[in-house]
Write a structure and sequence with these properties.
With 222 residues, the chain is of the alpha/beta class. The chain has helices at residues 3-14, 33-42, 47-67, 73-94, 117-128, 142-151, 164-180, 195-201, 210-221; strands at 104-109, 132-135, 156-160, 186-189, 205-206. Helix 1 (3-14) packs antiparallel against helix 2 and helix 6 crosses helix 7 (164-180). Bound molecules: CO-5-methoxybenzimidazolylcobamide (B1M). CO-5-methoxybenzimidazolylcobamide is lined by residues 56, 59-60, 62-63, 66-67, 73, 76-77, 79-80, 107, 112-119, 121-122, 158-160, 162-165, 187-192, 207, 209-210, 213.
């Protein structure tokens, strides 16, 4: 792996946002994820490699360390910030130049859940795939999904959850949408969910990653 991708992985893992950031003390004065992502882009390392070889593995390491009680929520938050700084720079590469959207995709992280990195990634890449996006943010309950659907008839809905405690809220959201706006296509994703769970709660499709979401959506558009 290029040295720059290794450095970026380390910056995100340790929560170093940019050169001026005082955190973490051992990287004081060094480049952070912002500068390193810029450099990687300038070196013509594609956004997909930046994501797959640095950013996503960095969050994997952070999760592992959190599980082992080697780091705590504040450190996890700094890593999320560092990843966010990189994602801002990657967004233009995924953004669509298409004028006519294939359809509308309403996405949100479900009630009780504040994790938005994966949801943002899906949103960004689906937009790059030519869909118009309505991103409802985090901690979204059924009422807000239904309101957005009423304003955008025929839109596909995407639910994201990262916690085993909040994935159950997907079931309630799916039931409410089915009750009020039958026929809506609902896609779910996020680390704790899978195809069995999708079937159990009556959603239409489980996508393990943004690519899976795009493929499903494109099948709905054609
Ligand atoms: Co939290 N956290 N966290 N966290 N956090 C996890 C999820 C955890 C697995 C860490 C661990 O213990 N190893 C664990 C959950 C355990 C469980 O439920 N089984 C956990 C916990 C426990 C918590 C708190 C409860 C901690 C506490 O307070 N004691 C708390 C909960 C707060 C809340 O939500 N109410 C909490 C808080 C936080 C932070 C705020 C500090 C921060 C989030 C910041 C943010 O998102 N802005 C954070 C982070 C960063 C993580 C980890 C380290 C990284 C998550 C991430 O961004 N991954 C995470 C550990 C891990 O994932 N290894 C962890 C990278 C991202 C690209 O992947 O989100 O999986 P992911 O998205 C993927 C796919 O899942 C898929 O595509 C994406 C790209 O491949 N995907 C979809 C996602 N959504 C999709 C939707 C789709 C399709 C595909 O269609 C609609």
């Amino acid at each position: 792996m290029e040295e720059i991708l290794e450095k970026l992985l380390e910056a995100v893992e340790l929560g170093k946002v940019d050169q001026n950031s005082p955190y973490p003390p051992q990287l004081k004065g060094q480049e952070g994820s912002y500068e390193l992502t810029l450099k990687a882009i300038e070196s013509k390392i594609g956004p997909q490699r930046i994501l797959e070889e640095s950013l996503i593995p960095a969050m994997g390491r952070v999760g592992q360390k959190f599980s082992e009680n080697k780091i705590f929520v504040p450190q996890m938050l700094m890593s999320a910030k560092a990843m966010g700084a990189s994602m801002i720079l990657l967004k233009p590469f995924f953004a669509s130049g298409d004028l006519k959207a294939k359809g509308t995709f309403i996405i949100g992280t479900v009630k009780g859940d504040l994790h938005d990195i994966g949801k943002n990634l899906v949103s960004m890449m689906v937009e790059g795939g030519g869909w118009s996006i309505i991103d409802l943010g985090v901690d979204v309950g059924s009422e807000r999904f239904i309101e957005a659907l009423k304003n955008n008839p025929g839109a596909v809905v995407g639910l994201s959850a990262l916690l085993t405690t909040t994935m159950v809220n997907m079931g309630e959201i799916v039931s409410s949408i089915r009750e009020q706006i039958p026929g809506t296509k609902i896609l779910i994703g996020g680390a704790p969910v899978n195809a069995d769970f999708c079937q159990k709660i009556g959603a239409d499709f489980y996508a393990p990653d943004p690519q899976g979401a795009i493929e499903y959506l494109n099948r709905q558009a054609s």
